C-alpha cells in the first residue's frame, strides 16, 4: 500500500489523477496538498469524511515545514507534483507568482522530500529508501518548433519562451539536480495540452464551450494557426500512473496525444459538436436560452480573432517513442471521442463551472 502526497490535487489534472488513483488503488492513502488558488476547487474532490484514506491539506507548497509535517504524519512514499501557476496569459501579465510557486515551491518540495526520505533518522521513522518524487512538467519547455521538424525527444534543448514555461524549465532543472546531487528518486514527465472534465474555463477548450453556452465571443489568438497536440486528461493520468509504477528513477518521459490540431480547428470542432447537441437536446434550449448562436446552429459566428499573445509559440510537438517502447504506454482516447465526453461533462456540470467563473 502506497501513501501519496498530491500537490495541486484540487486543480484540473490533479483532480482527475486523484479520482483515478482512489478508484484503482482504494487501499492507498492519498493526501492532497493545495493552496486553493483561483484554479483550485475543493468541491472537485471527495467531500470530507467520504473516503477513509483521502485527506485534504489547505496550504502553500512554499511552506516547507508544513510539507515535512504532512509527509511524516502520513508516511508519504510517493509525491506527485502538479501544483503550479499554469496559465501562460497570466504569466505574461504577472510573472512573479509563477516564479514563486513553480520554482521556489518546487524547491520547497524537493527540500522536504530530501529531509524526510533521505535524512530522517531511524528513531523518527526514516529514511525511506523506496520513494518517488514525480514532477509534472510541460512540452512548452522545449519552445516553438519549426514546421516540418521532428518532435522534441527527452534530450531536446530547452528553449522556453514565456514566463510560465521558463519557470517550469527552472523547476525541471532543480528536480534533475536533486536526483543527481542527493540521490532523490525522481521522475519527470513533459506533457502536451490536456483537455477534459474539471478544466478551468480560462483555457481554450472549456472557454469555448462555456462562451457558447453564455453567448459570449470566442477569442482566438492571431491567425488561429498555432499547432497543439491534445491529450485527453485521463490518458495523461494513466501515463503518470505507468511512470510511477514502471518508470526508472532519474528518467524523464514525454507524453503526447497524437492529436495535432490548429486552434481554429479545435474551436470549429467544438462549435459543430455544440450545434449538434443543441439540435438533438431540447432541454439545452431551456437551460441555456441565451445561447442563441448554438440554437440556430451558428456557434461559429461567435469566433473573434484577437491580437496574438506576445511570444506565442507556433508549434509544440513531442517525440513520445520512449514511453511507448519502454513503458508500453499509448493514449487510448481519440480527440473526437474525448471532446464529446468533455462537452457532455460541461453540460452536466453547469454548477461547477459557474462557480469557477462566477457567472
Ligand atoms: P491548474 O492551474 O488547473 O491547477 C493548479 C493547482 O495547483 C490548483 O489546484 C492550485 O490551487 C494549486 N496551486 C497553485 N499554486 C499553489 C501553491 N503555491 N501551493 C499549493 N498549491 C498550489 O493546473 P493543471 O492544468 O491541472 O496543471 C497541473 C500541472 O500539469 C502543472 O504543473 C502544469 O504545468 C502541468 N501541465 C499542464 C498541462 C495542461 O494542459 N493543463 C499540460 C502539461 C503540463
Could you walk me through the main structural features you see in this protein, from its secondary elements to its overall organization?
There is one protein chain. Helix content is 43%, strand content 16%. It is α/β, with parallel strands linked by helices. Strands 3-2-1-4-5-6-10 form a seven-stranded parallel β-sheet, with helices on both faces. Strands 7-9-11 form a three-stranded mixed β-sheet. Helix 6 (204-214) crosses helix 8. Bound molecules: nicotinamide-adenine-dinucleotide. Nicotinamide-adenine-dinucleotide binds next to helix 1, helix 4, strand 5 and strand 7.
Strand order of the largest sheet: 3-2-1-4-5-6-10
From the alpha carbons, calculate the radius of gyration and give it in angstroms: 20 Å
Shape descriptor reads globular
Largest β sheet strand count, sense and barrel closure: 7 strands, parallel
Alpha carbon gap, first and last residue = 42 Å
The fraction of residues assigned to DSSP E strands is 15-25%
Bound molecules: nicotinamide-adenine-dinucleotide
As an assembly, this protein is single chain
Instruction: Return the average pLDDT rounded to an integer.
Output: 95
Q: Tally of extended strands? A: 12
Residue windows where pLDDT falls under 50 for at least 5 positions: none
Task: Provide a quick synopsis of the model.
With 359 residues, the chain is α/β, with parallel strands linked by helices. Helix content is 43%, strand content 16%. Nicotinamide-adenine-dinucleotide binds at residues 7-8, 10-14, 34-37, 39-40, 60-62, 82-86, 101, 105, 136, 138, 168, 191, 193-194, 200.
Amino acid at each position: 500500500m502506497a501513501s501519496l502526497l498530491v500537490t495541486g490535487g484540487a486543480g484540473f489534472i490533479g483532480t482527475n489523477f486523484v479520482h483515478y488513483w482512489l478508484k484503482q488503488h482504494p487501499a492507498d492513502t492519498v493526501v492532497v496538498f493545495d493552496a486553493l488558488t483561483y484554479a483550485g476547487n475543493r468541491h472537485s474532490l471527495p467531500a470530507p469524511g467520504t473516503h477513509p484514506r483521502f485527506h485534504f491539506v489547505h496550504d502553500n507548497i512554499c511552506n516547507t515545514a508544513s510539507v515535512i509535517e504532512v509527509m511524516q504524519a502520513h508516511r508519504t512514499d510517493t509525491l506527485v507534483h502538479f501544483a503550479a501557476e499554469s496559465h501562460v496569459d497570466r504569466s505574461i501579465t504577472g510573472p512573479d507568482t509563477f516564479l514563486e510557486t513553480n520554482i521556489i515551491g518546487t524547491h520547497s518540495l524537493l527540500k522536504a522530500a530530501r529531509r524526510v526520505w533521505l535524512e530522517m533518522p531511524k528513531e523518527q521513522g526514516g529514511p525511506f529508501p523506496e520513494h518517488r518524487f514525480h514532477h509534472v512538467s510541460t512540452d512548452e519547455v522545449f519552445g516553438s518548433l519549426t514546421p516540418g521538424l521532428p518532435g522534441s525527444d527527452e534530450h531536446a534543448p530547452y528553449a522556453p519562451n514565456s514566463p510560465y514555461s521558463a519557470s517550469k524549465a527552472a523547476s525541471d532543472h532543480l528536480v534533475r539536480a536533486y536526483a543527481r546531487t542527493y540521490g532523490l528518486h525522481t521522475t519527470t514527465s513533459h506533457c502536451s495540452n490536456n483537455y477534459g472534465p474539471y478544466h478551468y474555463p480560462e483555457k481554450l477548450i472549456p472557454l469555448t464551450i462555456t462562451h457558447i453556452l453564455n453567448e459570449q465571443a470566442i477569442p482566438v489568438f492571431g491567425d488561429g494557426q498555432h499547432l497543439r497536440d491534445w491529450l485527453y486528461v485521463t490518458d495523461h493520468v494513466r501515463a503518470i500512473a505507468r511512470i510511477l509504477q514502471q518508470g526508472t528513477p532519474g528518467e524523464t518521459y514525454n507524453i503526447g496525444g497524437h492529436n495535432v490540431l490548429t486552434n481554429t480547428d479545435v474551436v470549429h470542432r467544438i462549435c459543430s459538436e455544440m450545434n449538434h447537441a443543441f439540435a438533438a437536446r431540447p432541454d439545452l434550449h431551456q437551460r441555456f436560452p441565451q445561447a442563441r448562436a448554438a440554437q440556430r446552429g451558428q456557434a461559429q459566428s461567435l469566433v473573434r480573432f484577437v491580437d496574438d499573445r506576445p511570444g506565442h509559440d507556433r508549434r509544440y510537438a513531442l517525440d513520445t517513442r520512449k514511453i511507448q517502447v519502454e513503458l508500453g504506454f499509448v493514449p487510448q482516447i481519440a480527440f473526437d471521442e474525448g471532446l464529446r465526453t468533455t462537452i457532455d461533462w460541461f453540460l452536466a456540470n453547469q454548477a461547477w463551472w459557474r462557480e469557477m467563473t462566477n457567472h
